[in-house]
From TrEMBL, chain A:
UniProt keyword terms in alphabetical order: ATP-binding, Nucleotide-binding, Transport
Lineage, uppermost ranks: Bacteria, Bacillati, Bacillota, Negativicutes, Selenomonadales
Domain ABC transporter: 23-254
Protein name listed in UniProt: NitT/TauT family transport system ATP-binding protein
GO molecular function list: ATP binding; ATP hydrolysis activity
PROSITE patterns, alphabetized: ABC_TRANSPORTER_1 (PS00211), ABC_TRANSPORTER_2 (PS50893)
Record keyword Isomerase present: no
Organism of origin: Propionispira arboris
UniProtKB/TrEMBL annotation, chain B:
Membrane topology: Multi-pass membrane protein
Sequence ranges assigned to domain ABC transmembrane type-1 in this UniProt record: 68-252
Entry-linked PANTHER family: ABC TRANSPORTER PERMEASE PROTEIN MJ0413-RELATED, ALKANE SULFONATE ABC TRANSPORTER-RELATED, MEMBRANE SUBUNIT
GO BP, sorted A to Z: alkanesulfonate transmembrane transport
Organism lineage: Bacteria, Bacillati, Bacillota, Negativicutes, Selenomonadales
Name this polypeptide is given: NitT/TauT family transport system permease protein
Organism of provenance: Propionispira arboris
């Protein structure tokens, strides 16, 4: 679809040099034509994410954080720059990048088990191996009893747990999460955050997680990309050094509160200089 | 409760059936009283008893059965053809804008043309044989069906398709493994609505160009001012429609046990 140009080759060379990076966003921008003008939604985003990072992207609405995630998935495309995952340029969606959405996207005509097995069956994996993987993830998300249930019989939190298991079971290079707990109540949300941290540690996966909940971001992340809107860009990268074995109590520690406050200030700072975008 | 002003309160099944039964009984009693009491002329509204007698006679000499059978045959063939072609084309329309650009404006244009106006044309094309009636049912439902199925396809949430891509499906596997199963209940609901229209177009065809079928019996009865026969024709069609609708409702419930709407 796209012609290979000298610029592409240069960018590829850049990617190879940075081989340690699992995900590279190089000068990524997105602009739309509106009438005769050009509207820049995202400008010059440069992000690198390493293997086994838990990267959270936070920012005000309209900063393009969700668009960035869709670009990583190959569901949307940058108009400038390029994205590499494992030194492969992202040009279309694929099974190497699993995604969990805010809306419930389990296939409603399939049981929990069939949902988890969907990607594996597409890969034509041997049945025995599929069963093993299914058992493992059903146990991980503590829904073994529900393996034959349809999504309509599950609560919101359970549905998202299955969606996470479905993405993980496919063994993708990265997991992309677009506010997956946004529709859940606070109690369920807390439990999901704990579970996700646990799964991430166990699986050694690389996760990119978009949220507007700063508390959630600080709790989950190893690093947070704080974004700014109009146009969307990365304002600051904050490394979260609050230990790796986190329980909910960590949210009450001084370090946690300081980090939350710091990120909050970064965001409010932005809102002061254009009031009309609140 | 007297002060309970909440809307959409459910009642139990028994009460519901009772109310329905009473409604029908009141309707029949009213009909009986109005006609037997001589309040209206039999030519305008025949007596309930003479309609029932007409139905009994028709059943006894087999004419009712054979006319019903031929009508069912025509509607089944015409509707099946419309489904076999309309559903796949509709799905393609909903998935690919290039297909939509070809098909949709054409359908929008054709669907505003009154079907009865096609009847004389169809007779020129296909004579007055069975094919003519089947074609009329087909024309009446096909174009509309494409547009409605295309809409059903478009209503499948984008995120559901996106989830599918990120699990590894390509274009056609997304359509067959995700889009079509997801829109299953909507397809069946659309067909349930469309088959009601198919009955209308069948009767249109039979009224104009036929010597058999339920529409034809109604027309023939009109020539002889036999209002009781007109009524029995209409009642049979109504009854068949009701059965088809119940059949579809049951089928939808059975086919999609996973669907929240079909099986609350």
């Amino acid at each position: 679809m796209m012609q290979k140009t000298a610029a592409d080759d240069m960018e590829a060379a850049f990617a190879v040099n940075a081989a340690a990076n699992k995900i590279i966003l190089h000068n990524v921008g997105k602009s739309y034509k509106i009438g005769k003008g050009n509207f820049t939604a995202i400008a010059n985003v440069n992000i690198t994410i390493q293997d086994n990072d838990f990267a959270c992207i936070v920012g005000p609405s309209g900063c393009g954080k969700s668009t960035l995630l869709h670009m990583l998935a190959g569901l949307d495309f940058p108009t400038q720059g390029a994205i590499w995952i494992n030194n492969k340029k992202v040009t279309s969606p694929g099974a190497d990048r699993g995604m969990v959405f805010q809306t419930y996207t389990l296939f409603p005509w399939m049981t929990v088990e069939d949902n988890i097995q969907f990607g594996l069956k597409l890969k034509k994996m041997p049945i025995k191996q599929i069963e093993e993987i299914t058992d493992k993830y059903l146990e991980d998300i503590k829904l073994t009893k529900f393996r034959k249930s349809y999504p309509k019989e599950l609560s919101g939190g359970m549905k998202q747990r299955v969606a996470i298991a479905r993405a993980l079971a496919n063994q993708p290079e990265v997991i992309l999460m677009d506010e997956p707990f946004g529709a859940l109540d606070q109690y369920t949300k807390n439990r999901m955050q704990l579970l996700l941290r646990e799964l991430w540690q166990k699986e050694q996966s690389t996760i990119v997680f978009v949220t507007h909940d700063i508390d959630e971001a600080v709790f989950l992340a190893t690093k947070i990309f704080v974004m700014d809107a109009h146009p969307g860009k990365v304002k600051e990268v904050v490394n979260i050094g609050i230990g790796e074995n986190r329980t909910l109590e960590v949210k009450d520690t001084f370090e946690f509160i300081q980090l939350r406050k710091y990120i909050n200030e970064l965001l409010y700072d932005h809102q002061d200089d254009d009031e009309e975008n609140i | 409760m007297k002060d309970d002003f909440r809307l959409r309160q459910s009642i139990n099944k028994k009460t519901y059936m009772m109310i329905t039964a009473v409604t029908f009984i009141i309707f029949l009693v009213f009909w009986y009283v109005v006609t037997a009491g001589g309040f209206v002329k039999a030519m305008f509204l025949p007596a309930l008893t003479s309609v029932l007698k007409n139905l009994a006679e028709g059943t006894a000499d087999g004419s009712l059965g054979s006319n019903t059978a031929i009508s069912i045959y025509r509607i089944t063939m015409g509707f099946a053809a419309a489904v076999a072609l309309g559903v796949p084309i509709g799905i393609l329309c909903g998935c690919f804008q290039k297909v939509e650009a070809v098909i949709s404006p054409l359908c929008e244009f054709i669907r505003y043309m009154p079907v009865p106006a096609f009847v004389p044309l169809v007779m020129v094309w296909a004579g007055i044989g069975e094919m003519a009636k089947i074609i009329v049912v087909f024309i009446g439902t096909f174009f509309q069906m494409i547009l409605m199925i295309a809409d059903d396809a478009r209503l499948v949430p984008e995120d559901l398709l996106s989830a599918s891509y990120t699990l590894g499906t390509k274009r056609w596997s997304t359509i067959f493994k995700v889009l079509i199963p997801a829109m299953g209940p909507k397809i069946m609901l659309t067909l349930r609505v469309m088959i009601g229209w198919a009955w209308t177009y069948l009767v249109v065809a039979e009224l104009v160009a036929s010597n058999s079928g339920l529409g034809y019996t109604i027309l023939k009865a009109q020539h002889f001012f036999k209002t009781d026969a007109i009524f029995s024709g209409i009642l049979v069609i109504g009854f068949l429609g009701l059965i088809t609708d119940r059949f579809f409702a049951l089928l939808i419930k059975r086919m999609f046990p996973w669907d929240e709407r079909s099986n609350p």
